[in-house]
Every structure is written in structure tokens, then in C-alpha cells.
Design a protein that fits this description.
alpha+beta; globular; 26% helix; Lipoprotein; twelve-stranded mixed sheet; 247 residues
Length: 247
């Protein structure tokens, strides 16, 4: 079992140790949670391996906007409607500006793995739009949902852009009782992962009733090396630290 699945199972087992003293209702909750973990673990482990893949994939968000993801470990590039976000072995490039217009790229020295998931999500939102969900975001939501009592999970399959995928429908996610009026979390989602580990679909609805999601529309195992450099003619500004996401 890989790291994502092991982490989920550890939480469930810790809860289950006290079940005998807490009655049948709690035992039933634990059983459902364990069943949920069983459904999610394989998909989460598979998704976690996607960081080793080399590919070019085009995704479309719910509003029809296209975002291209190019990955050749340890390099990755996200090319969206408002710019591109590029990570290489030793640098981060955040480029703002649409193709055909003036493009400005901020370049800073960043080691692989140095950026937090939250910062990566913010950079992605800036170049691809707020509805874009990447692998790390999907994995975090899956892991969290697995251990929440009362969540219902249904398994199904789909073929998406030629990729045979296993899917989960996750519903009944309760809102955090301590959430503030402006805090938004997922209340249900549908996720599909190809046999290779590639995220092929993620559709979700938040507690604000707004839909977000992406679906794979094109896929290739080939990559263009130009995806990992600034666009031709772009102005490059060297910075001592990564820019604030969205700036």
C-alpha cells in the first residue's frame, strides 16, 4: 500500500480502536468509513503515482475554458487562458498575458517540492481560472472525504478522451460546524482516474452551490520542450523569491 492509502487507513484504524466501548451506532459508522477507505484507497494510490508520468493533456473546465498540462518529471507546465505557470528542476516561471499580447514572466529560484500545495493551487487559479482542479487538489479532497462519517461513495467506470477510467461519486459530505460564513468546502464530487494514474475528470459542488471541475479532452504521451520555457518574446523579470500568487 502506498503513502496516500496508508495515511487514510491509519486514521480509520485509530478511530476503530475505541468502537467496542461506544456502541453499535459508532461501529456502523466505522464500518461505512472503512468501506469508503476501501473504495478510495486504490484510486488515491493510483492518482498519487501520476507525478511520474510524462504527458501532454488538455482539460476543459465547466465554462469551456481549456488548460493544457505538460509534464516531464520533474518539470511541469500549466498553460491557461491568462498565462502559464512552469516548474522546472530549479526555477519557477509565472507568466501573465495572453498569447499574441505582451507577456511578462517572473522567474525565481525554486527547488522541486519547495512550493506548498496551497501556493500551487493559487498560481493555477491565476492562469487557468478558479474552476481548475489539478491532481493534488483532487487527491486532498478524496483523502479528506474518506474519513468523514456519513459520506456515501458509489463506484462506476467511464471512457474519457480514450482513457478507460475508474470513477467515484462522493455525496453527503457534511459542512464543518466551525466554518465561517465565507468558508467554502466541497459537499459532493465525482472523480475519475485512468489506469495510468492520470486524472481524467473531476466535477464538484461546493457548499456555496457553485460547480467546479475539469474533464480531459485530449491526451498524448509526447511533450514539447518549449512548454517549459517562457513564450517567445516574453519579458523576463528575475526575482529573489516567488511572486505572491495572483500578482
Amino acid at each position: 500500500m502506498h503513502r496516500a492509502g496508508s495515511r487514510i487507513l491509519t486514521v480509520v484504524l485509530a478511530s476503530a480502536l475505541g468502537a467496542g466501548a461506544l456502541g453499535c451506532g459508532f461501529i456502523n459508522q466505522v464500518k461505512q468509513t472503512v468501506d469508503n477507505v476501501s473504495a478510495i484507497t486504490d484510486l488515491a494510490d493510483r492518482l498519487g503515482k501520476s507525478g511520474k508520468l510524462t504527458f501532454t493533456a488538455e482539460y476543459k473546465t465547466d465554462d469551456g475554458t481549456a488548460t493544457t498540462v505538460v509534464q516531464q518529471p520533474p518539470k511541469a507546465a500549466y498553460i491557461g487562458k491568462d498565462g502559464r505557470f512552469i516548474l522546472t528542476e530549479d526555477a519557477l516561471l509565472v507568466c501573465n498575458g495572453k498569447t499574441g499580447q505582451k507577456v511578462v514572466c517572473q522567474k525565481s529560484a525554486v527547488q522541486t517540492g519547495q512550493l506548498s500545495s496551497a501556493d500551487q493551487a493559487a498560481y493555477l487559479s491565476a492562469v487557468a481560472g478558479g474552476g481548475f482542479i489539478n491532481t493534488e487538489m483532487a487527491l486532498a479532497l478524496m483523502t479528506a472525504a474518506a474519513v468523514v462519517p456519513g459520506v456515501k461513495i458509489a463506484e462506476n467506470t467511464a471512457t474519457i478522451a480514450g482513457q478507460q477510467s475508474d470513477c467515484l461519486d462522493v455525496t453527503g459530505i457534511p459542512q464543518d460546524a466551525n466554518a465561517g460564513p465565507n468558508d467554502v468546502s466541497a459537499k459532493e464530487f465525482h472523480v475519475c482516474v485512468a489506469e495510468s494514474g492520470l486524472l481524467t475528470r473531476f466535477k464538484g459542488v461546493g457548499t456555496d452551490d457553485k460547480a467546479i471541475g475539469v474533464e480531459l479532452s485530449k491526451y498524448s504521451e509526447k511533450v514539447d520542450a518549449q512548454a517549459f520555457v517562457a513564450p517567445k518574446g516574453a519579458q523576463i523579470v528575475t526575482a529573489t523569491a516567488p511572486p505572491a500568487p495572483g500578482k
